[in-house]
């Protein structure tokens, strides 16, 4: 089988890199090499920067209407290529095909939000703010934007970034994950096919050196990052050092609280789906549940249902979860699961030695469930990013809220209850940016902004919704007075700053 080479995209063209360093892209279910991706050279990164900077001169002057029309065409092409995109995700990431199709849907939501740019990128005006003086604001594009995305959503995360940035009149350089780049490249190809002009959207690949070169460049004006806390902090700090606007959506440790009055079957099924779906490789997964009061008696049923979940390759349509992305990821996950046992947690479902028939080399980790977990254990303090669930118990909702608020992360949390009073108390008292009420993964629809908080986010503005326009534009205020052609103002010199 011929192994495809992942291209760079610079100036609207697919470019074969001249790099001496190429990385293998593996099918996580088989370890088969399915593609090779280059680490871009300094000259190639410079070419992408120059291409984006040059394209900005004309693209920033394109009308809102024409930018919107391109986004409308783009969303239609993505919709038509849903299956193709999903299959590429499954091939290189490993998530199940239904889950990958769902990711295409979430990416579409973000693209559709960019289609609303004619309504989102509106300024304000005060007519006669002072006598014969008008004041108004303009939301102007910044210049070249940079997006750096993680492996776990190779379609959705780029869609959180470049469609809105480009719709606002910026040009863009995308630096996707090297672990599963094919679906991202295909997404960009569809965007260019939709009519995005040459140089407006570029793609380069690489690690820390490439990222540092991009952030440090004069051309880049704003940086959007989604990934781990360690790397996100470095990116944010470097961007700040160089005077860039930045946002970093980072790690998490989300909690689902289950109250005794919750719908039992729905709560258990949603808990297991959110903890183990995508093999736990979601920043919005629920790797911790807090069983309140009598719900601790539901534990045997939670355990039994977890044991029934099917592990298999992403192409196996009845699989509940596929492999994790790489052997390195599997080794890290197993090490953390081992530490849970070593530190005294009770492992009631053990997926460490998961074997899938016909796939002896796959990166499979089965659903794993711990009880007796304390908040100082590594399995609680660290983001496992694998199919592991830590079960804690609390006597009251107040105790559960206190546990969550003591955790440094603030990405998402959920409460399952039938009580409106409990739901309202939870959403008001909890110190977390995204809250689900009987919703296990509280990522809002894309016309609302992604609002993680505390240790899960750096920067004031999140992707999507109205905030996305604030991030990708700057506000220019204009105060204007127009005089009649033969206006005479006399000889008085005005030395005050007042407008009347």
UniProtKB/TrEMBL annotation:
Pfam family, one: Aldedh
Gene3D superfamilies membership: Aldehyde Dehydrogenase, Chain A, domain 1, Aldehyde Dehydrogenase, Chain A, domain 2
InterPro entries: Ald_DH/histidinol_DH, Ald_DH_C, Ald_DH_N, Aldehyde_DH_dom, MeMal-semiAld_DH
Domain Aldehyde dehydrogenase: from-to ranges: 17-478
Keyword field: Oxidoreductase
Domain of life: Bacteria
Keyword Oxidoreductase among record annotations: yes
Keyword Lyase set for record: no
Family: Belongs to the aldehyde dehydrogenase family.
PANTHER family hit by this protein: MALONATE-SEMIALDEHYDE DEHYDROGENASE, METHYLMALONATE-SEMIALDEHYDE DEHYDROGENASE [ACYLATING], MITOCHONDRIAL
Official protein name in the record: CoA-acylating methylmalonate-semialdehyde dehydrogenase
Organism in which the protein naturally occurs: Colwellia asteriadis
């Amino acid at each position: 089988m011929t192994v495809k080479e992942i291209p760079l995209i610079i100036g609207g063209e697919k470019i074969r890199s001249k790099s001496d360093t190429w990385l293998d892209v593996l099918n996580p279910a088989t370890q088969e090499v399915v593609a090779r991706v280059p680490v871009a050279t300094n000259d190639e990164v410079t070419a992408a920067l120059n291409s984006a900077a040059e394209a900005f001169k004309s693209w920033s002057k394109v009308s809102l209407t024409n930018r919107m029309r391109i986004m409308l065409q783009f969303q239609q092409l993505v919709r038509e290529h849903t299956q193709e995109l999903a299959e590429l995700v499954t091939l290189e990431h490993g998530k199940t095909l239904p889950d990958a199709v769902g990711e295409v849907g979430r990416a579409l939501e973000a693209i559709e939000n960019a289609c609303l740019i004619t309504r989102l990128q509106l300024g304000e005006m005060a007519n006669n703010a002072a006598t014969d003086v008008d004041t108004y604001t303009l939301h102007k594009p910044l210049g070249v934007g940079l997006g750096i995305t993680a492996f776990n959503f190779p379609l959705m995360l780029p869609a959180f970034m470049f469609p809105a940035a480009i719709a606002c009149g910026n040009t863009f350089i995308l630096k996707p994950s090297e672990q599963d780049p094919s679906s991202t490249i295909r997404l960009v190809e569809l965007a260019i096919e939709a009519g995005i002009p040459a140089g407006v959207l570029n793609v380069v690949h690489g690690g820390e050196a490439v990222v540092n070169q991009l952030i440090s460049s004069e051309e880049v004006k704003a940086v959007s990052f989604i990934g781990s806390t360690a790397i996100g902090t470095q990116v944010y700090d470097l961007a700040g050092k160089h005077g860039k606007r930045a946002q970093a959506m980072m790690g998490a440790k989300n909690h689902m609280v289950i109250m005794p009055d919750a719908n039992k079957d729905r709560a258990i099924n949603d808990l297991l789906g959110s903890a183990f779906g995508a093999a736990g490789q979601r920043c919005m997964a629920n790797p911790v549940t807090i069983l309140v009061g009598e719900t601790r008696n539901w534990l045997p049923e939670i355990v039994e249902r977890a044991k029934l979940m099917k592990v298999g390759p992403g192409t196996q349509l009845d699989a509940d979860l596929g492999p994790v992305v790489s052997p390195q990821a599997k080794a890290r996950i197993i090490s953390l699961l081992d530490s849970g046992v070593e530190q005294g947690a009770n492992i009631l479902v053990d997926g460490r030695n998961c074997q899938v028939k016909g796939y002896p080399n796959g990166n499979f980790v089965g659903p794993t469930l711990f009880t007796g977990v304390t908040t100082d254990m590594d399995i609680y303090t660290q983001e496992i990013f694998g199919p592991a669930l830590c079960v804690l118990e609390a006597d009251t909702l107040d105790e559960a809220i206190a546990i969550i608020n003591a955790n440094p992360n603030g990405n998402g949390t959920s409460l399952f209850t039938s009580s409106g009073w409990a739901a309202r108390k939870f959403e008001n008292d909890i110190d977390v940016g995204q809250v689900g009420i009987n919703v296990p993964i509280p990522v809002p629809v894309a016309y609302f902004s992604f609002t993680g908080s505390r240790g899960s986010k750096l920067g004031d503005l999140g992707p999507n919704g109205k905030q996305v326009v604030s991030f990708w534009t700057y506000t220019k205020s204009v105060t204007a007075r127009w005089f009649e052609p033969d206006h005479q103002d006399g000889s008085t010199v005005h030395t005050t700053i007042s407008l009347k």
